């Protein structure tokens, strides 16, 4: 299987697996226990916390969560006041915002242009005094477009609001603006384990708890932490920091190969820049992507975001940038990164291209 679905999840880094193994097969330990084994587990958790924090702004605390969805829910539900977000956000933000709206919170969802970037003039009209929180994704998970988070954060602060950044796809790859107040990340998008994420909370920001219980994490998150998952996330973050330039150069080479391989009948959805180049959301007129996926079974790629796959509905991100339902259903996403070999990328793209051309001849 050729794996070209890095936005859905990334292969586990060997370093992350190695960091996890002692806590999976060795001495059992609850990191919140006071005995020696518990203190050793707690020390591992704290090392991981420092490793994760190294790629985040200064002046805040990392709170481990069960994933980015929990982190985003906590950040949104733990704050008050009107909420402003963007139409191309992940469903973890949009559906949480919708739930908040049903509970009486005022929610404004800003549109984007055909390039997928929020309209700054519209943002200026919406982010006004009285707004409590602005939420924006740094790198879009479906089309790779980078939003002007720093500018949005400045507008938020001028209005007295907090800035939440969904940095799941950008953490370790794109600089996270120092102006953010809350940052959500996920381990399995950076070659760490599935089942853990984190919320970075700026010093002085108070959040109401999402989960009530023992309050094991100082900012107010309850639940027993897994030393294995924390160690895996920490190790993955450390490797992201150490390999940042090497990984970025590799992705740029792969992107150049991919774009050269694609003929002019393919177009890229979303802005050509600024964007993260390890994400290519491609469209070809008349293409039946559902059929394509059944024909190219040895290549893992996405017909949209993995979170919405199987729903039968066109991507809300592609609709937001102005694509028709037919155009959205003629789009696919390929994602690549650290462990993608050039020959595998070429073979995978060639298989997709050949199947697409076969469809065109049969039409």
Tally the helices. 12
What integer is the average pLDDT? Answer: 95
Shape category: globular
Strand order of the largest sheet: 2-8-7-6-5-3-4
Measured as a percent range, the helix fraction is: 25-40%
CATH class of the largest domain, please?
Alpha Beta
Distance between the ends: 28 Å
Catalogue the unreliable spans.
none
Indicate the radius of gyration in whole angstroms: 21 Å
**Could you say how many structural domains there are in total?**
2
Total beta strands: 12
Estimated structural class: alpha/beta
Tell me what the CATH architecture of the largest domain is.
Answer: 3-Layer(aba) Sandwich
**CATH topology-level fold name of the largest domain:** Aspartate Aminotransferase, domain 2
Main sheet record: 7 strands, mixed
Order of helices and strands: EHHEHEHEHEHEEEHHEEHEHHEH
Structural topology:
Elements: E1 2-3, H1 14-25, H2 36-53, E2 60-65, H3 68-77, E3 83-86, H4 91-102, E4 107-110, H5 120-126, E5 133-137, H6 149-158, E6 162-166, E7 182-186, E8 197-202, H7 227-242, H8 244-261, E9 267-268, E10 279-283, H9 289-295, E11 299-300, H10 316-320, H11 325-329, E12 331-335, H12 342-362
Parallel strand pairs: 1-11, 3-4, 3-5, 5-6, 6-7
Antiparallel strand pairs: 2-8, 7-8, 9-10, 10-12
Helix pairs in contact: 1-7, 2-7, 3-4, 8-12
Walk me through the structure.
The protein has 363 residues and is an alpha/beta fold. The protein folds into 2 domains: 2-9 and 243-362, Aspartate Aminotransferase, domain 1 (Alpha-Beta Complex), CATH 3.90.1150.10; 14-242, Type I PLP-dependent aspartate aminotransferase-like (Major domain) (Aspartate Aminotransferase, domain 2, 3-Layer(aba) Sandwich). It is 39% helix and 14% strand. The chain is built from 12 helices and 12 strands. The chain has helices at 14-25, 36-53, 68-77, 91-102, 120-126, 149-158, 227-242, 244-261, 289-295, 316-320, 325-329, 342-362, and strands spanning 2-3, 60-65, 83-86, 107-110, 133-137, 162-166, 182-186, 197-202, 267-268, 279-283, 299-300, 331-335. A 7-stranded mixed sheet has the order 2-8-7-6-5-3-4, with helices on both faces. Helix 2 (36-53) packs parallel to helix 7 (227-242) and helix 3 (68-77) runs parallel beside helix 4 (91-102).
């Amino acid at each position: 299987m050729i794996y070209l679905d890095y936005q859905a999840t990334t292969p586990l880094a060997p370093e992350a697996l190695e960091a996890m193994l002692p806590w999976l097969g060795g001495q059992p330990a609850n990191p919140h226990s006071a005995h020696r084994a518990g203190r050793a587990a707690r020390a591992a958790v704290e090392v991981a916390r420092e490793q994760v924090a190294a790629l985040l702004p200064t002046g805040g605390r990392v709170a481990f969560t069960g994933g980015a969805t929990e982190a985003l829910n906590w950040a949104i539900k733990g704050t008050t006041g009107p909420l402003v977000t963007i139409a191309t956000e992940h469903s973890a933000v949009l559906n949480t915002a919708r739930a908040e709206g049903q509970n009486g919170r005022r929610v404004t969802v800003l549109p984007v242009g055909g390039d997928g970037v929020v309209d700054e003039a519209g943002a200026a009209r919406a982010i006004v005094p009285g707004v409590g929180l602005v939420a924006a994704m740094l790198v879009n998970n479906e089309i790779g477009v980078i939003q002007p988070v720093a500018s949005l954060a400045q507008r938020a602060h001028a209005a007295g609001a907090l800035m939440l950044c969904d940095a799941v796809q950008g953490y370790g790859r794109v600089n996270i603006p120092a102006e953010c107040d809350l940052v959500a990340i996920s381990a399995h998008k950076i070659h760490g384990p599935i089942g853990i994420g984190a919320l970075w909370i700026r010093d002085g920001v108070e959040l109401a708890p999402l989960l009530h219980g023992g309050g094991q994490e100082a900012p107010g998150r309850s639940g027993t932490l897994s030393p294995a998952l924390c160690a895996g996330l920490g190790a993955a973050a450390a490797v992201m920091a150490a390999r940042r330039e090497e990984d970025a150069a590799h992705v740029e080479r792969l992107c150049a190969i991919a774009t050269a391989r694609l003929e002019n009948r393919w177009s890229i959805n979303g802005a050509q820049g600024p964007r993260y180049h390890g994400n290519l959301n491609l469209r070809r007129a008349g293409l039946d992507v559902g059929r394509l996926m059944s024909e190219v079974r040895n290549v893992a790629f996405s017909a949209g975001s993995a979170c919405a796959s199987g729903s039968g509905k066109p991507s809300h991100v592609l609709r937001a940038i102005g694509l028709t339902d037919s155009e959205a259903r003629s789009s696919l996403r390929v994602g690549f990164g650290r462990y993608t070999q050039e020959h595998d990328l070429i073979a995978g793209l060639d298989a997709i291209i050949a199947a697409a051309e076969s469809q065109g001849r049969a039409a």
